[in-house]
Amino acid sequence: MKKNILYKIYSAVFIGICLVPSAFMPFVKSDASDEKRRLSDAPKIKDDNGNINFEYFDEFETYFSEHFAFRQQLVTLDGRLKSTVFGTSPNDDVIVGKNGWLYYGETVNDFLNIDTLSDRGVNNIKNNLEMMNNYCEQNNARFIFTIAPNKNSVYPEYMPFNYSPTENKGNYEKLSESFEDDFPFCDMKEVILNTESNIPLYHKKDTHWNNLGAYAGHARLLEMLGREKCPSGNWTIRNDHQGDLADMIYPSEKPDDMQIYSDYEYKYQYLGHFRAFDDMSIKTFCEGKNGNLLMYRDSYGEAILPFMAECFGSAEFTRTVPYRMDGIGENGADTVILEIVERNIPDLQKYAPVMPAPIEESLKFKNLEVCHDVTVKYEKNGKYIHIFGELGKDFFSGSNTKIFITANGINYMAFNAFEDKLLEHEGETSDNGFSLYISEDSGVNPENITIITINDDGSAVSSQ
């Protein structure tokens, strides 16, 4: 009898605990800000057209899983148990390292040096960056390309012991070694590794560098430009930063990551509406300073933005992709910086910058073959005709190929870019893509063009 009573009590308590998240759901709301993402809305039985929503139960399952009471607290408890007891992460996007360090899961391949760019992929990106640099030079603007290194590239010692890199070269090394000595590349990995500091330059529980790391990066960029760096002021340390990685597995915990602050009083001001550092476009001006900066950046550009804004009379920091370069020149930017994080290096052969395609006076090659394995598409894009597509493997030999579009007797150089979304192959990669923008006033008919590839051995292949 006693065992039966205890069994009933145990069952009632167990069921009661299981019902708590559901019972309190109307009274305890989940906070989407804790997880840095938008939670799903409550599903409707009928859609906007009055038809029955046959996805209702699937949508409700997702809604419930994101909104049940005490979700953040339970996610945090699960994260703490797994990371502390087992040294594992409940989230595939987060790697639990040693001494409480967290790393972004998408950087694993870079850390292990696997699934890296092919030699042609490296040369594709190199060609693209050289075209951007040449365009800036033609429009009297300085160009600098820099890569913000992944955290585990500069602090590998805290990665879990079971992550053992191969002896292969990674994308960062492959690309940086491909540049000629005179190419304006800022080796940010070297900057971070050679900066003397008693404290780390990256956050312990965040993907990114901290303010001190960003300051070191900005100082090197300004040195390359021959400009005076932003004054540092006096640095203080506060444990008040909530890392983006900690948000994913410890969403209900208070911020406790270290951040470094400067007491320097910035003079720059924002132009237009400023909401937060992750805005798609941020414009600034600084009285008494000269120069006009255009900086293409990602999330690593947030910490570096104040230092850069303080050093230029006007500046624009944009996250828009593809990069719009057609405004460079007269009354435009005189300094252009392209910053991209290491893990996104392959994206540099995905989207062609929006700028007039360079014109080549004449094409020089040894012999010419013909291949008809071509996919060509086009669209109107503002004042341009955007032509893009993919070429068959027979168009290529060797690892360095330049692609030209010939129309009306003019040779336009294309970017080595595979527009995956526009080609309806989102998420896929290819070393055989091409993309370029030609002025609509040129009279080019995209249905009457010839595509010619010239390989590094001098051989050429034409689509006609």
What order do the helices and strands come in, and which of them pair?
Layout: H1 2-23, H2 56-67, H3 71-86, E1 94-96, E2 102-104, H4 108-112, H5 119-138, E3 142-148, H6 151-154, H7 171-178, E4 185-186, H8 188-194, H9 211-225, E5 235-241, H10 244-249, E6 257-262, E7 269-271, E8 281-285, E9 292-296, H11 301-309, E10 314-318, E11 335-341, E12 359-360, E13 367-370, E14 374-381, E15 384-391, E16 401-407, E17 410-414, E18 433-439, E19 450-455, E20 459-462
Parallel strand pairs: 3-4, 3-11, 9-10, 9-11, 13-20
Antiparallel strand pairs: 1-2, 5-6, 7-8, 8-10, 12-17, 14-15, 15-18, 16-17, 16-19, 19-20
Task: Summarize it.
27% of the residues lie in helices and 22% in strands. The chain has helices at 2-23, 56-67, 71-86, 108-112, 119-138, 151-154, 171-178, 188-194, 211-225, 244-249, 301-309, and strands spanning 94-96, 102-104, 142-148, 185-186, 235-241, 257-262, 269-271, 281-285, 292-296, 314-318, 335-341, 359-360, 367-370, 374-381, 384-391, 401-407, 410-414, 433-439, 450-455, 459-462. Helix 5 packs across helix 7.
